[in-house]
Amino acid sequence: QVQLVESGGGLVQPGGSLKLSCAASGSIFSPNAMDWFRQAPGKERELVATATSFGDTNYADSVKGRFTISRDNAKSTVYLQMNSLIPEDTAVYYCRIRSIVGPSKNYWGQGTQVIVSS
Questions:
Q1: How many helices (H) and strands (E) does the chain have?
Q2: 3-state DSSP call for residue 93?
Q3: Contact 66, 81 (CB under 8 A)
Q4: Alpha-carbon distance 80 to 8, whole Å?
Q5: Distance CA 106, CA 24 (A)
Q6: Spans in the chain with pLDDT lower than 70
Q7: 95 by DSSP, 3-state: which?
Q8: Distance of alpha carbon 41 from its chain centroid, rounded?
Q9: Given this model, what pLDDT does residue 3 score?
Q10: From CA 49, how far away is CA 62, in angstroms rounded?
Q11: What does the pLDDT read at residue 24?
């Protein structure tokens, strides 16, 4: 089992910044990918950004140039730096760790709320 704990959410004004963290613990497998998803009220959960243990990253078009995903593999932690926030970024943000080779495994965190509002 792997446990994921997100933190860093909150209320921020449009144009502001927040940095989310997601710390993994337990039986962490490797190689892996760590993803950030978000889910706004009444909408489906969407993939925001991905970072693999190989160093590859990928972003949704809606956040390219504004969000940066990074990892500290020694701390088993993934971060999401969010800049130039807009109201449409308001959502619950979730992290996920998943296997990228071998048997399929994935674990989710409990989510952290981000509200962008003046």
A1: 0, 11
A2: strand
A3: no
A4: 9
A5: 12
A6: none
A7: strand
A8: 18
A9: 97
A10: 10
A11: 96
Query: What pLDDT does residue 105 have?
Result: 93
Q: How far apart (Å, rounded) are the C-alpha atoms in residues 111 and 93?
A: 5
The phi and psi torsions of 27 (rounded to 5 degrees) equal: -85, 75
> Do you know the residue count of the chain?
118
β-strand 112-116 against 10-12: which pairing, if any?
parallel
Contact (CB, 8 A) for 90 and 114: yes
Instruction: Establish how many alpha carbons lie within 13 A of residue 100's alpha carbon, considering only the half-sphere containing its beta carbon.
Output: 15
Query: How many other C-beta atoms can be found within 10 angstroms of the C-beta atom of residue 118?
Result: 8
Which residue has tokens 């993803």?
A: 35
CA distance to 35, 50, 105, 108, 109, per residue, from 60 (Å): 11, 9, 23, 19, 20
